[in-house]
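Q: Please design a sequence for this.
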């Protein structure tokens, strides 16, 4: 199963990012970043969510 990640158009709060990480933890299998078509592990997907920041 692949879980799509979409690039946000807003600045997410730390609480929103943690909620996304909690959802990622519930996924069985790899996660698909639809922007880059890259398949990610849970840890890589959570790192992406926590470190991603939209430019101004």
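A: Design:
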């Amino acid at each position: 199963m692949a879980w799509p990640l979409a690039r946000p158009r807003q600045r997410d709060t730390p609480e929103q990012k943690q909620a996304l990480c909690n959802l990622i933890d519930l996924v069985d299998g790899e996660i698909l970043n639809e922007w880059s078509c890259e398949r990610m592990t849970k840890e890589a997907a959570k790192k992406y969510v926590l470190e991603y920041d939209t430019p101004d």
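Q: Thanks. Anything notable?
A: Helices lie at 14-26, 42-51. The chain has a mean pLDDT of 85.
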